[in-house]
Amino acid sequence: MTVTDTTVNQRLIEVTDILRRKLFEFAEEAEITEQEYIEGLLWLNRVGAADEAILLADVLHLSAKVVDLNNQESEATQSTVLGPFYFPERHHDVGNPGRICPESQPGDPFVLSGTVTAIDGAPLAGVQLDFWQSDSDGFYDNQLGDETNLRGRMFTDVDGRYEVHSVKPMDYPVPTDGPTGEFIRATGHNPMRPAHFHVFAMADGYKPKITHIFPDTSQYLDNDAVNGVKDSLVYRFETGDDGVSRTTFDLVLAPV
Ligand SMILES: [Fe+2]
Fold this sequence. Notes:
The structure is a single chain. With about 260 residues, the protein is α/β, with parallel strands linked by helices. It has a single domain (about 65-255), classed as Protocatechuate 3,4-Dioxygenase, subunit A (Sandwich), CATH 2.60.130.10. The protein is about 25% helix and about 25% strand. It contains 6 helices and 13 strands. β8 (about 195-200) and β9 form a beta hairpin. The longest helix is centred in the first third of the chain and has 21 residues, at about 10-30. It is globular. The structure holds fe (ii) ion.
């Protein structure tokens, strides 16, 4: 019988061949016992059931590695991990300049502003910028309930400029109440991430830019749970006489 199966995925075959070879090498080098093998597979089942596949990949530093492999344009702003707390349906246009939290939000007020340009320095107007961050206790809005807070969207003006008003984010632990948390505790892995502010820039004709900005006062800059820190993304936030911290974060986008 001759069957022409148009659903065969050559890329999947290629990737699977590499993965199988590497897994065999892993089993041999680690001298995995049959008991360890079964326990590991059952644990992976629980990771999937808990929707923690992304979290596990982040904690294994695999997500950061894949980001680096796919974003090597040296002239563009460096990328880092998306993380598990980006929910585009929660991002609403806050205007530009705009606030992503109420005036009464507890914490140290800060203003982030800058210009989005192409690699040749040309300002890019109308770039969609999504921002999200933890509160001053280290929690994202989705961890607290259904109310949207400390996240929003704006579009760069005709000169490529943006300005977002908020409060400074705080260091926080990745979720540790599930099977990935068991792994973190059993291996002594640091669960903490240094404080950071997420930025996701999207513009037609340019590669989406997923990145963070880290205040230089953040703890864990040298020991990020997901290995997402880049020196070029660590910034000093200058506090003015008005008690507001400000910093300028210019973004450079690479063409598609
Ligand atoms: Fe985050």
